[in-house]
Amino acid sequence: MNGESAARDGKGFLGTRAGQALATNWAAFFLVLMLITFSLTGRNFLSIVNFQNVVHLQTVPLLLAIAETFVIITGGIDLSVGFVMGLASVGAAKLMQLFLASGLTPGLSIALSMLIVLAGSLVPGLVNGIVITKFKVPPFIATMGMFGIANGLALRISQGYPMIGLPDVLPKIGNSYLLYVRPGDFVSFFAKPENFPDNRVRELLRLIPLSLPFILIVIAALAFTLRRGRFGRHTYALGGSMDASIRSGIAVDAHLVKVYVLSSALAGLAGLFNIFQTGIGNYTTFNAQYEFFAVAAVVVGGASLAGGKGRIWSSVVGVLVLAFLENGLAISGVKPFYRYIAVGVLLVVAVVIDKLFPDMR
Amino acid sequence: MSDKTASVPAAGQRGKSLASTLGKSWVLIFLLLETVYFCFRSEGFANPNSLQIMLFYGVLVFLLATAELFVIVTGGIDLSVGYVLGFASIISIKVIEKLTGMGLDPGLALLLGVAATLVVGLIPGLINGWLVAYLKVPPFIATFAMVGVCHGISELIINGVYAMGLPKLASDIGSGHMLYIAPGGALSLFQKPVVERGVSVLEIVPNIVVVTAVVVAIFAFLLSRTKFGRHVYAIGGNMDAAERAGIPVKRRILGVYATSSFLASLAGVVYAFMYVSGKADAGASLLLDSIAAVVIGGASLFGGSGTVGRTMVGALIIAVLDLGLRMSGTPTFDKYILVGVILILAVIMERYMQERA
Fold first, then answer.
1. pLDDT-based confidence at residue A15 (cuts at 50, 70, 90)
2. pLDDT tens digits, one per residue of B321-352
3. Which of A189, B3, B103, B268 could bridge across to B85 with cysteines, CB 3.0–4.6 Å?
4. What structural domains does chain A harbor?
5. Cα–Cα distances in Å, from B218 out to A205, B72, B132, B224?
6. 3-state SS string over chain A?
C-alpha cells in the first residue's frame, strides 16, 4: 500500500486510480478519441454503413488476432497464420472445384470442402506444436518454417492465380445482411425481396452483416475460454512461468500443442471466411503481412510478447484501432500510405506505454 | 584445433572428433549433396555459367543475410530489412533521376546517388537501434514498426507505381560483367564487345557479385576480427556480463541495427541497378530467405553465435535450391516449402549435434 501511495506521489495524475485506468486501457480510450476525431474530419465516417463495412472487412484480421492472442500469452508467436489462412482459402477452393466437377451439388461441395479444410487446418498447428515442444525449436523459427511451407503449398495448389469458378452462392452468403429494410415499406430477412431490382439495392437499409454475429460468437466463446476455463488458466500459467507450470502439474507440452492447433484452426476458419467474402480462393501475398498486423493488434491491445499478459477483448480493440485508423484517414482524404506509418508509430507507442506501466494487469 | 594439440588420441576419441567435425560441417555437406543432386536433376545445371547465374540472383539474400546476422548475434531480429531494401531502391532511383535531370554526368550522378542512399539508409537502423537499446522496445516490435514506416514513406514517394528512370549506365553496371572474351580471344574489361548477332561472348563474373563479395568480406572482417565484432558477440552471449565488462552496450546495439540497415540499403541499391526499377515491397519475400540463411548457418536466435562464413553457406543452400528448381522446370513454389523444411530441420540438427558434442 505504501508503494502505491508513493507511486501516486511520484507520478501525479498517472498515479491516481483514474490515471491508471487510462494507462491500462489507453487503446480503448485512443479508439474512442479517434472515432470522435474522424467523425468531425471525415464525411460519412459516423454512419452505420461505414461502421458495418469496417467490422465486416476486419473479420479476417480479428480471427487472426484472436489466434495470435492465445499464442502470445504463452510467450510464443505464430508467424504462419497468414499463410495458413491462404492455404485454407485455396485448398477449399480446389476441393470445391473438384467436387463440383465430379457432379456434386454446390451446397454439398461447399459443406464437404469446409469440413475437410477445417480438419486439415489443424495439421499446421499440430506440426508447429510438436516441432516447438518435442524438438525445442523456438516458436519464431518453427512457425516461420511453416510460413514458408504453407505459402509454397498454397502457391502450388493455386499455381499462383486466384481460384475462380466457385458457386455464386458463396459471396452471396458471405456478404449478406441479417435485415433488409425499406423504411415504411418492408423488412426482409437474409436477402432482399426477390422482386426488388438489383440496381436499386442502395435504397435499402441493410443492417447487421452476417459476419457480425459470426465473429461475435467466436470472440465471445474464445474470450470465455480464456478468462473462465481451465484451458485459459493454463495458457496464462505457461506464459507467466514455464517452470512453475510444470511444477504445478500442467501438461505443458500437450497444452502448448493445443494452443498452436487452436491458432491454426482459427487461421483455417479465416481462410474459409475469405472464400465466402470474396467468392474466390486467394493465396496470401508477401506484402499482405497478416501475421505481423495480427501481432501488432495484439500488442496495441496491451499484451506483452514476453507472455503471461493479454485479453481477447483487448486484442479486438487493437484490431479496431488499426482498422479505424486506416478507415478514418482514408475517409478524411489522407493518402492511404500514411496508415502504414501510423501503424508503426502506434506500435512503438503501445510498447513504450507498456514499459512505463509494467504491472498494471 | 584440439585434435592437433592432443597427443595420440585414443580410437574412441578420434571417432568422436570425426563425428563432431562432420557435425559442425553438416551444412557444408548438405550444400555439396544438394549441388550434386541438381547436377543430375536439372539439365544444364552442371555448368560453370550456372554458378555465375546463381551468385547473380543470390546477391540480395547474401547482403540481407549478413545484415540479419549482425542483429541475430546480439539476440535481436530485424524484420525491416526487406522494406528498407525497397525504400533504398526507390530513394536511389529518385535521387539519381534528380541529379541527371540537373544535367549531371550519369557516372557522377550514380556515385552521388548511391552515396546519398547509403547515408539515408542508415536512418531506419539508427531509429531501430535507438528504440531497442534506449527505449527497450522488443526488436520484433521496433523493426516491424519500421516495416510500416518504410513501406508508407516508399509508397508516398512513388505514389503506388514503380520508381524508374535510371540512366542506361546503371543497368550496364547492374547486369554487366567484369570481363568479356569475344570468340577471337579478344579480352575486354567491363565493356561488352560489339559482336554480330548470334555470336556469343563469354562473360565472366557479374559486377554486382564482385561488389557483394567485397562488402560481405569487409563485414565478415568487422564481425570476426575487430573490437566491435567482439563486443557484438559478448552482448549476444550475456548482456549483463557485457555491461559489467564495460562494453558500451547501448551504443553497440545502435551500431548493429545501423549496420543492418546500411547493408539492406546497399541491397536496395543493388536491386535498383539489377532490375532498373524500385518498389516498396521489392524485398518483402526476402525476409524468410535471409533469416533462414542465418539460422541454417547455425546461428542461434538467442544470440551469441553465428559467423558470416556459415551464414553464406546457408545463403548458398537457398541460392542453389532456387536456381536448381528453376532449371529443373518445377515451379519455384516448391522453394518456399523446402526453405521452410530446411529451416526447421537445421535447428533440430544443430541442437542434436550440440547434445552429442
1. low
2. 999 998 887 777 889 999 999 999 999 988 88
3. B268
4. 26-356 (1.10.3470)
5. 66, 18, 25, 10
6. CHHHHHHHHHHHHHHCHHHHHHHHCHHHHHHHHHHHHHHHHCCCCCCHHHHHHHHHHCHHHHHHHHHHHHHHHCCCCCCCHHHHHHHHHHHHHHHHHHHHHCCCCHHHHHHHHHHHHHHHCHHHHHHHHHHHHCCCCCHHHHHHHHHHHHHHHHHHHHCCCCECCCCCHHHHHHCCEEEEEECCCEEEECCCCCCCCHHHHHHCEEEEECHHHHHHHHHHHHHHHHHHCHHHHHHHHHHHCHHHHHHCCCCHHHHHHHHHHHHHHHHHHHHHHHHHHHCCECCCCHHHCHHHHHHHHHHHCCCCCCCCCCCHHHHHHHHHHHHHHHHHHHHCCCCCCHHHHHHHHHHHHHHHHHHHCCCCC
Please tell me which of the candidates B148, B280, B285 has its beta carbon nearest to residue A344: B148
**Do residue A355 and residue B344 have CB atoms under 8 angstroms apart?**
no
Nearest residue of B to residue A288, measured between CA atoms: B284
pLDDT band at A358 (very low <50, low <70, confident <90, very high): low
CA distance A303 to A70: 10
Q: Three-state SS for B197?
A: coil
Please give the biggest Cα pair distance in chain A.
Answer: 75
d(Cα B127, Cα B91) in Å, to the nearest integer? 18
Predicted confidence (pLDDT) at residue B53 exceeds the cutoff of 70:
yes
pLDDT tens, B93-145?
999 999 999 989 999 999 999 999 999 999 999 999 999 999 999 999 999 99
Select from B338, B290, B287, B286 the least CA-distant residue to B315.
Answer: B290
Q: Return the H-helix or E-strand segment holding B188.
A: strand B187-189
pLDDT surpassing 90 at residue B90 = yes
Q: Which amino acid is at A252?
A: V
Which chain A residues touch B146 with a CB distance below 8 Å? 344
- As given in the structure block, the three cell numbers for residue A321 are 484501432
Partners of A155 on chain B (C-beta within 8 Å) are 331, 333, 336
**Which structural domains are found in chain B, ordered by start?**
25-356 (1.10.3470)
**Cα–Cα dist A260/A14, whole Å:** 37
Measure A22 CA to nearest chain B CA, in Å: 21
Assembly ipTM: 0.86
The whole-model pTM stands at 0.89
Contact A337 B291 (CB under 8 A): no
CA distance B274 to B173: 8
For residue A225, the model assigns a pLDDT of 94
> Which residues 6+ apart lie within 8 Å of A281 measured at CB?
A89, A90, A91, A92, A93, A94, A158, A162, A163, A166, A275
Q: Which residue has the cell 569475344?
A: B182
Q: How many pairs of residues across A and B have Cβ atoms under 8 Å apart?
A: 143
Q: How many CB atoms lie within 10 A of CB A175?
A: 16
CB-based contacts of A299, cutoff 8 Å, min separation 6? A72, A305, A318, A347, A350, A351, A354, B141
A261 φ/ψ angles, rounded to the nearest 5 degrees: -65, -45
